[in-house]
Amino acid sequence: MTTILGIESSCDETAAAVVLDGKTISSNIVASQIDLHAEFGGVFPEVASRAHVEAISTVVNQAMSDAGVDYSQLDAIAVTQGPGLVGSLLVGINYAKGLALTTNKPLLGINHLEGHVYSLWLTQPFREVQFPVLVLIVSGGHTELLLMTDHGVYQRLGGTIDDAAGEAFDKVGRMLDLPFPGGPNIERTARLGNANAYDFPRAKRDESYDFSFSGIKTAVMREVTVQPSGANRSKRKRRSEKRAQLRSDVSVNDVSAAFQDAVTDILVEKTARAAKAYGATEIFIAGGVSANQMLRQKMRKHSELPVRYPPLNLCTDNGAMIASAAHFRLQEGYHSDLDLEVRTMWPLSEKTYDF
Ligand code: KG4
Ligand code: ZN
Fold first, then answer.
1. Is 54's pLDDT higher than 80?
2. In order of start, what are the domains of the chain with their CATH numbers?
3. In what order do the strands lie in the sheet containing 76-82?
């Protein structure tokens, strides 16, 4: 039995959790910065790292006291080492280093994307996993299609060549004047809309397992924003690029529904095809966008394979998924040096951890 503290600060959530055996959540605290970033319509790195500094010790202390454990009872301290925003990551990493040093516990630098994968190990009741499984990670920063052949072993089949799926939701949300983040707000307005009212392109309908979302984003932009014309064109164009004006005759509900329909079509088609081609036993979807109900439903409809997704509160960033991933790495004898460095770019591969 392991007891692991997981710390996550790669983007806009300061989070910590205590997880038993990689599967059972003992405590899970998430301090979201959404309200802070909503004001700007997006995440500002400088604002994010400052907020992490302010929140981190309270969040970690709360996770420890909710779990009712003290540091001597921990088997390891895990922290997101990357990928993510450098200033934000450093806050978690430095805090974890300090804890590891003072408590003399092993420190494990964990890949954030792998954390999302292991959020699937935290569903209750836990069902054993039969490898290989096809994993689709869809978050604000990443869209990755992976074949997971064993614990910690990933074959990358494809990913986005431009915007991440969540990023596309956030950008379209901003065009529609919806609050940040776009994903959940587009899902909410889409429920009241007609997905057939617009026909947005399903880009990259090819044999590859790569995705592209910038084409849909541009198509939505053309449809919903004011098109400058006449003598003032260049001046107005400059202004519209800065902050596009939403046309008054646009139905936000219909655009949301049609956009969500297009994005989920693209994600589901390639994921189902890859799962079949690679003989996966199951499809796993993880990351913020995996909270989307239409994505979940379409995936189930489109594939004969079982589909797993995390409970809603574990789709977006949290410390529990980091602690869970660390449990499985600890079994393999992995731990980091106290001088571990931030890794802002760090793809999942067959050898994600070189130890
Ligand atoms: O995994 P996450 O918390 O952060 C990253 O690691 O990037 O994902 C956040 C992303 C945001 O882009 C947000 O708009 C999207 O997940 N998201 C959703 C939904 N809930 C969150 N997208 C679509 N539908 C949702 N219900
Ligand atoms: Zn994430």
1. yes
2. 3-123+314-331 (3.30.420.40), 133-309 (3.30.420.40)
3. 24-32, 13-20, 3-8, 76-82, 107-111
